[in-house]
Amino acid sequence: MKKINKAEITRFSREETQQRTRQRLIESAYLLVAEKGVEGTSINDIAKGAGYTKGAFHSNFESKEDLILNLLDQHNDQIAQSLLSVVKKASTDFDSALAAVSSWIQDYAMDRHLALLSTELYLFAARNAAFEKEYTVMMDRHRHTYADLLSYLFNLAHIRLPESPLKLANSLITLVRSSAVDKALYGKVTDDNAIALFINLLRGYKPTRDA
Question: Per-residue DSSP letters for 40-96?
Answer without folding.
Answer: T--HHHHHHHHT--HHHHHHH-SSHHHHHHHHHHHHHHHHHHHHHHHHHHTTT-HHH
